[in-house]
Amino acid sequence: MTDLVQWLATSVDWSSLTVASKYFAGGLAMGLGAIGAGVGEGYNAGKAVEATARQPAATGDLVRAMLVGQAIAETSGIFALVVAFMLLFLPHQPSMEIVGALLGAGTAMGLGSLGSGIGAGMAGGQAAASIGRNPESRGSVTMTMLLGQGLTSSPAVFSLVIAVILVFGQQLNKYLGSDLAITVSALSAGLCVGIGAIGPGLGTGMVAGGACNAVGRNPSTATTMTRVMLAGGAVSQSTGIYSFVIAFILIFLVK
Amino acid sequence: MEETIIKAAALLSAGVCMGIGAIGPAIGEGFAAGKACEGVAKRPEEAPLLTRTMLIGQAVSESTGIYSLVIALLLIFLFGRG
Amino acid sequence: MDIIPGAPIKVIGLPFEGYNAATLYNTWLVMAALFFLAWLAVRSLSAVPGRVQVAAEGLTEFFEDICNNTLGEEHGRKYLPFIATLFLFVLFSNVIGSLPNFLRWAGWPGFYCPTQDLNTPLGLALIVVCVVHISAIRVKGFRGWLWSFYEPSFPGDRFVTKLVAVASFSGLLLLSYVFLRMYILAFLGMGWGGRIVWGGVVGGFFANTIVVMAHARRIGRVPNVAMAPLNVVGELGKAISHPFRLFGNIFGGFVILTVVSHLIWQIGLPPFLNLFFGLFIGLVHAFVFAMLALAYTAVQISE
Questions:
Q1: A213, pLDDT greater than 80
Q2: How far is B26 from C299, CA to CA, in rounded Å?
């Protein structure tokens, strides 16, 4: 065991591993990050097509609602793109901690945008389905969908914050030694907030989808529904916020 | 040196513990809140009762997430900072 | 991490170097703006309202409706000012960061959201926790408030209540016995402040159990002892997640705006992102913050 730690600190070529890990992490961020946005937008489009088949007269409304919903479902993918660019093109000091931080940033953003993308797509898809069922409700359904998707994006925003902090990690002086614990804590912060964002994204998406569906059935309840949706969705994100807090502690409080 | 590896393992498992532990409760709570929205659409006059029931149910289904939080904090502050 | 530039400022001769100057400046600006708007709205009240009065009345009615629906008529009116003020303050704090710095000529350091500094959401959430628990004590009484941590309780006769009381007392005594040596050693090793705090905690456990068991005999229900730690940690979880939700979203918006502006030099994307994060996410999360404060209050003061 002692040999392992000494070998890691002295005999490994961290400068080339830093370059390798920054490319790997960039690929990880964008590759995993594309899944969520892709699946979500596809689900949205599928529901819109079903609704168009049922109500060809409402095609214009449906396409508009679908495009707005897809544009917001896309944001988590854009976050992943931004983080991937930062990983690929910013200069990074070669050190063991930076390797951990870069891999953590890639994992955080990649996994973190998965849930939010699918969740936003679920909200958009249910909104399209209920506009197809009841085209008169399009105004309140679109409003509910937008609010729900605004809530859905917050797990991805948490991942983004952690990923950006980890990418700029070399400004924290502690990232330039070769300490196994700091390396692992940076990686672990990324894993924590990344995996922890999957569930909240999906859960909030289910809330927003249910609310859009319900507003479509009974448009007069739109304001009550917005309130119930925001309270329920915010509570269902709290475990994601716990992951965010743990990631903050892992980055800033571990010496 | 042994302590370094134990510390690193504790930190890694704290992150993984909170990360994986956050998945289930969040999906469960989202399911509950989605059903509450459907309930409000069916009986709008019962909205305050439904909201309160939803919040209590979510608080209970969040308890496993809180266990993960407590375990992660213990792992960091008891074993991870030595 | 020095993301917000904190220039040292002087307020009536006192240096404010230890604080985040940009946050302080912008918080005072938000408060001034709210005062000014309130003055504008009530300046000339009339039966035929002007534009500002219509907007203010609409906002008040909206929140009055929400508070009355959630808390009932008698409590709703009492909590309306608190909830609406919370919403307005958080909303203005969230959108102020989207303004361009048109006061640069007057030496203004720039517009930053006070809520992107963790201290502001933490302070607001502390206020909410205090308000929620103090109003729970006022509505249900101290014993009722303590009892609410033992919910869901179940009905039972005096024998079962006595059994649970005996069981939880012997559990506490057993725990004290098991940790006695550790506890005494730690107690002797710490200063007087620590002794008072730890003595208070342990004494509080016993006092709490006595009060709750007496209350249980009075109302003829059996407290759910297993739920008590869970409820306490649940309240802590609410208090943690409430400020971090706001902070994470606003700070995330700021981070992505800064990064994108640096990467692609202000072409195209930043205005859209500014609209999305500054106004839309700011509005949604101001509303969410106020609604969660209301929901926590409703859960605590409901019978």
A1: yes
A2: 20
Nearest to A247 by CA among A151, A171, A169: A169
Q: What is the pLDDT of residues A13-46, one digit of tens each?
A: 888 998 999 999 999 999 999 999 999 999 999 9
Cα nearest neighbour of B48 on chain C: C70
Question: How far are the Cα atoms of A76, A121, A189, C207 from residue A71, in angstroms, in the given order?
Answer: 10, 10, 29, 57
Quote the mean pLDDT of chain B.
88
Residue A20's contacts (CB-CB under 8 Å, 6 or more residues apart) are: none
Note the CATH number of domain A23-252.
1.20.120.610
* Domain residue ranges in chain A: 23-252
Residue whose token pair is 């909410």: C128
| Helices within chain C (DSSP H only) | 21-42, 51-71, 73-95, 119-147, 158-178, 180-189, 192-219, 227-264, 269-274, 282-301
Q: Does position A214 have pLDDT exceeding 90, yes or no?
A: yes
CA–CA min distance A240, chain C (Å): 9
Chains that touch A (3 or more CB pairs under 8 A): B, C
Residue B71 touches chain C, beta carbons under 8 Å: no
Q: Is C31 buried (19+), middle (13-18) or exposed (0-12) by CB count in 10 A?
A: middle
**Closest-approach residue (CA) in chain C for A241:** C241
Hey, of B18, B67, B76, which one would you mutate to test binding to chain A, going by the most A CBs within 10 A of its CB? Answer: B18
Query: Looking at residue B50, which CATH number applies to its domain?
Result: 1.20.20.10
Radius of gyration of chain B (CA): 19
- Answer whether C234 sits within 8 Å of B59, measured CB to CB: yes
The closest alpha carbon to A233, from A197, A192, A200, belongs to: A200
Q: Do B55 and C234 touch (CB under 8 A)?
A: no
Of B4, B34, B66, the CB nearest to A5: B4
Report, as an integer, the average pLDDT of A237-241: 92
Nearest CA in chain A to C240: A242
Q: Residue for token digits 């057993």? A: C174
Give the pLDDT confidence score for residue C261 in this predicted structure: 75
Structural domains of chain B, count:
1
pLDDT of B28 reads 94
**Which domain, by its residues, includes B51?**
2-80
Pairing of strands C14-15, C10-11: antiparallel
Q: Please provide residue C264's backbone torsions phi and psi, each rounded to the nearest 5 degrees.
A: -120, 20
Is pLDDT larger for residue C1 or for residue B68?
A: B68
**Structural contact between residues C287 and C94, judged by C-beta atoms closer than 8 angstroms:** no
Per-residue model confidence (pLDDT) at position C125: 93
Range with top average pLDDT, B78-82, C47-51, C287-291 = C287-291
